[in-house]
User: Fold this.
Amino acid sequence: MSFHLSRLNALHFRNHREVEAELGPEVNCFIGPNGVGKTNLLDAVHYLSLGKSYFDPVDVHNILHGEELFMVQGMMHTEAGEDAILCSVRAGQRKVLSRNRKEYDRLADHVGRYPVVMITPYDGQLILDGSEVRRRFLDGLIAQFDRGYLEALIRYNRTLTQRNAALKQFAERGGGSLEALEPWDEQLIATGTTVHEVRKAFMQDMVPLLVSHYNGISAGPEQVALEYRSALHEATLRELLAQAWDRDRIAQHTTQGIHKDDLVFTINDQPLKRYGSQGQQKTYLIALKLAQFDLTQQRSGVRPILLLDDIFDKIDPQRMRHLLKLLSDQRFGQVLITDTDARRLHTALDGLDLDVRFFHLDHGKPISSETIERTVA
Assistant:
């Protein structure tokens, strides 16, 4: 199945009062100086695809200052017809996400229908920040094509909250026992074991793709690796929860489980965060996201929308050549690119056998557009 976003509308979204753009099915470039909201348009597409922001998990933070709500609308062109997607957030009210005017009861029911992959300079947090960021990346990736995984993860997190509340009550009232936690532990064990098994199998498929893309981008001799680290590799979750009972009781929260898992990025058998140069870290992250694209396509049977945020300004010619080769080989479906330099993108994209459209943004002005004529070989 194939799809692309044919029209994008935004109202009071981040710094945009009102935006409308008719998009092409292949390459769309948003050009303009810093601060005009190019990245925000990519985030609007992320909202349409996944019902949430890529950058800020607090929805009301994305409402234009001084307004009470934002609305993002899009028309998804699919093989079965046109799907009208709407996402709106009003301060103090429940987020609304609808498809063809039918509101979803649960946002999770929308995830995976229109997969998306974002590559942005902000991805550096995957390397520099704590394990929660990397787990969120992994969970968001798998959830786009594995509904059972998403359901298990939601139930696990709900049960974890309840178990932690019970541990706090034990501390406040005194007493409590491992047996008293059994109803929550059984749920944690069932759902956590499912999540762990899916993560483990998924990483076995992802690592070779990461290494392949890294080698294709980098001219250096370095060796990169990606390890999924989990206590469940060595013991069952039932055993881990039993062993951690005294520690959990003192800490008043659950100290063992899949919510403690992590991804470990290495270069030449050393931590990438400490021993990788800025260029090596950027190369690793681009390779990681391209591996994400490949796996999402393989598992879902759909080419995700690829969002490239200001990356041609941040990468050297070697990395740009790899991306351009993938573009010219038509490995991707629809691609949305932001850049400050129209000439740089024209130079990079002219001559490719692709439908390329440019959208020029400026402060306080409507978006203007132009199209590059397709080259016929």
Remarks:
- The two ends are 27 Å apart (CA to CA).
